[in-house]
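Below is our example:

___
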Amino acid sequence: MYTRFLFFLLVALGGAGLTIQMAWNARLRMATGSPVLTTLISIFVSFVSLVILWGSGVTPRGSISAFDSVPRWAWFGGIFAVYYLVASLMAIPKLGAAAVFSLVIAGQMISALTLDSTGAFGVAQISLTTSRVLGTLLLLIGVILIQKR
């Protein structure tokens, strides 16, 4: 139970951090004038942060013992991070942070339910239940309400 709560807390704090990251990146974008340059800077800072974290030994270092053992698609997850950052940087000045993040959450929930229910890409298969669908629909209703000005 404690471990589950800790993961809930860590992920929720990560979500809060993403919102702050977008606000900081939106301000940086005003200075750079480019969502792509801002994303490059953000990814560079992320890279440096990861190198420090990896070198600190806080998490297992891991290894890539055999490149061929990993499906080709598994190497390209970073594409979605770039898309997310650039699209959010372009949208936040027009839509605001709450609208952008409600849309991000809506997209994540629909995709997550699809992955869970199909077990695609090696995700643990979890049945599509009435409560999971209802919870997602309520989130989507929240997205619609947040869009109203």
Q: What stands out?
A: Residues 13-56+74-95 form one domain. The mean pLDDT is 90. The helical segments are 2-32, 35-56, 78-95, 97-118, 130-147. The chain has two domains: 13-56+74-95, 96-149.
